[in-house]
Amino acid sequence: MRLQLVATDRPVDLIAERIDLALRVRAALTSDAALTMRTLGLSTRILVAAPRFASEIADVEQLTGVPTLSTSDDADDLEWRLEHEEGRSHSVRVTPRMGCADMMAVRHAAIEGLGVAILPDHVCRDALSDGRLVRVLPAWHGLKGIVHLVFTTRRGLPPAVRALIDHLAAGFQKELATKATA
To answer: Per-domain residue ranges for the chain?
Structure first.
């Protein structure tokens, strides 16, 4: 088996880019009819920063004036769509200090105090539990996303791809069970 991992925060065309399997998080499940999907669960992006940095932010409007970190390689301004736990929504226009498709690099930059990041909750879990990161404006979060696998076909999948799909699904279910008991 040969594994090549492409980490990107942009839509990919599995067929044109010759990708056997994609792990996606989307607010709604929409896909090409030629693709098969397997839903794994839900993910929520949360606002995080180093403790010394986060204490300076008291209101959602302040996000436009603080350094931010993005999981996009796009160097332009971005719009963060946020939801409040009471159901309100708010869009914030940010110009990221750093953009990188590698979520672990963005998490590390946030830990080092380079700015506020909006990252999936599961990516931040360990850093939140040991205090390297804290939630910024904990009543606010990004849109909830559906975590799912996308692949070209159920029949004719190489055995290694089928094994990887089963492994990822089992691992995600185990993670959900651990999260539920915590």
So the answer is: 21-42+145-181, 44-142
Coil, strand or helix: which one is 39?
strand
Q: pLDDT tens string for the chain (182 positions)?
A: 788 888 777 788 888 898 889 998 887 877 677 788 899 988 999 999 999 988 889 999 999 999 999 998 776 889 999 999 999 999 999 999 999 988 999 999 999 999 999 999 989 999 999 999 999 999 999 988 899 999 887 667 888 999 999 999 998 877 765 665 55
Give pTM, 2 decimals: 0.80
| Angstrom distance (rounded) from CA 163 to CA 157 | 10
Looking at the domain that runs over 44-142, which CATH code has it been given? 3.40.190.290
